[in-house]
Amino acid sequence: MPLSVTDLATLGDAPITIQSTFFPNVYLRMDGTGVTTFAGSGGGTVNCQFGAGPYERFKLHPQADGSFSFESATAFPNVYLRMDGAGLPAITSGPGGGTVNCQFGAEPYEKFKLHPQADGSFSFESATAFPNAYLRMVGSGVTAATDSGGGIVNCQFNANGGGHEKFILNVAR
Description:
Elements: H1 5-9, E1 16-20, E2 26-31, E3 45-50, E4 58-62, E5 68-72, E6 79-84, E7 99-104, E8 112-116, E9 122-126, E10 133-138, E11 152-157, E12 167-171
Antiparallel strand pairs: 1-12, 2-3, 4-5, 6-7, 8-9, 10-11
């Protein structure tokens, strides 16, 4: 059962998964290998995975400003999802741009506004650093689990509710 806005307030440390609404059984994957201290440009790899294992589990952390950050639940402690929308083309279609990777600790690039959608999913907007930049995931060709994942995760301009910008949040099994 997908998590609702109400569920997010009472989730605690329960690990969650972030699943694409557009690509069946495709999940956001975060590999924080080597990310052990803060680095301005971040590091590691964020892409897609078919099915959900340890790299696809996150802790959702509410922030004082109403935004949320996503920490690796167990595989990479204190490593967070990072979105850099610098250079993102101001168009609402096409291949997107920017950089999505990992960061040690949660600063402005690691904070997201979660926009609920009519179908129960959410779109993730940069909370403060890059207004109107949304998390985008393209899982084309991701049809089986692989060690390194696949697909593309980047940013899209002004794409609240777009097909590649909507995600189902579930408690991880």
